[in-house]
Amino acid sequence: MVALQNPSVVGDILKSVTFYASFDSALKGDFGGGELNLSTRTNHKTEKGAFVFEKGFPAFRIAPGKGVSGGALEAVDVLPDNGRIFFPARGNISYKKGGWSGAFSVWINVDPDTQLKTGFCDPVQITENGAGNGGIWFDFNDARPNRNLRMGTFPAITDGMRPIQESREAFSPMVWVDKPGLKAGEWHHVVLVWRNFDTGKADGSAALYIDGKLMGEIRKDYPISMDWDLDKTGIYVAVNYIGLMDEMAFFNRALTDEEINVYYLDFFFSFTLTSVPSHS
Ligand SMILES: [Ca+2]
C-alpha cells in the first residue's frame, strides 16, 4: 500500500459525492441519496414511443476482481427492444432548478472499435426526454475505423423547437475526441464536469477529461438548461456498451483540474471511494 498522495484534496472530493457504485459485489449503488437499485427501460412492443419500466437487469453482471478496484460491471450483450438500465436520478444527482453544477466520474475498459455491436454507445446518459433534449452524456459514435469519444450537454427544447444538431461546429454543445486510443484490457478514467446549468443565463460551461487530462470545453452563447422532472429522469448506464465499467460516482459540484488529476493518480495508489463518509 502506498500512502495517499494528497489526503486533503481526496477528503474534499469525498465530501461532494452524491452517488457511488463500486460494482464490487452487486449491480447497485453503494451510496446515494435516492434509489440504489437498477431498473430497465425497454420500448413498448406495440405502442410506438411508449416505454416499459421494469426492475432488474438482464445482460449485465459483476465481474469479480476484474475492476480497476475490486469487481466491475460487465456488459456482455445489447438488450432487446432498445433496452437500457438506469438508476433513478432523484436524490442521486445534484440537479437544481435555477442553477447547479456537478461532475461524473467512471472508469472504462473497452475497445470501442472492436467490441461494440451497435452504431452508437453511451456509457452514461442522464436524461428525461432524450440525448438531444436535456441530456448530459458521453458516447462512442459510428465513425470508422475509429469511433470518436464525445461529450454532449444538450439543453431541453420546448415545443416546436428542433433539437440542436450533434456537430463539431461551434453551435453544438459537444466535445469531440478523435482516436481516443482505448483498448480492451486497459482502464481509462473519464470525468465530465459542468457548471451553471439551468441558470437561464448563458454562463453554463462543461468539460471532458480522460485520464486526468482536459480534452475540451463547452461554452456557449445560450443557456444550458436540462429542465428535468427528476422523477422521470434516469441515469442510464452502459447503453449498448460491451465491456467493463467501474467505480462510478456523481458529485454535487464541478471538480477542479487538480482534483481530477489527484483522483486519477490516487486510484493507481490504491485509493478507492469505499471510504465515502455517510451523508446522513
Ligand atoms: Ca469496483
Short description:
With 280 residues, the protein is mainly beta. The protein is built from two helices and 17 strands.
Shape: globular
- Major sheet, described briefly? 9 strands, antiparallel
CATH architecture: Sandwich
Total number of β-strand segments?
A: 17
Structural class: mainly beta
Bound small molecules, by name, code or SMILES, are: calcium ion
Strand content: 35-45%
**Ends distance:** 30 Å
For this structure, the CATH topology is Jelly Rolls
- CATH class equals Mainly Beta
| Backbone CA Rg | 18 Å
Order of helices and strands: HEEEEEEEEEEEEEEEEEH
Catalogue the unreliable spans. Answer: 273-280
Measured as a percent range, the helix fraction is under 10%
Number of helices: 2
Quaternary structure annotation: single chain
**Average pLDDT taken over every residue:** 90
Overall number of domains? 1
Structure, described:
The protein has 2 helices and 17 strands. By secondary structure, it is mostly beta strands. It has a single domain, classed as Sandwich (Jelly Rolls). The chain binds calcium ion. The site of calcium ion has 10 residues, from strand 17.
Secondary structure blueprint with pairings:
Layout: H1 7-15, E1 17-21, E2 31-32, E3 39-43, E4 51-55, E5 60-63, E6 72-75, E7 84-88, E8 100-109, E9 121-127, E10 135-140, E11 149-154, E12 174-177, E13 188-197, E14 205-210, E15 213-219, E16 234-239, E17 243-251, H2 257-267
Antiparallel strand pairs: 1-2, 1-17, 3-4, 3-7, 5-6, 6-17, 7-16, 8-13, 8-17, 9-10, 9-16, 10-11, 11-12, 13-14, 14-15
Calcium ion is lined by residues 22-24, 67, 69-72, 246-247.
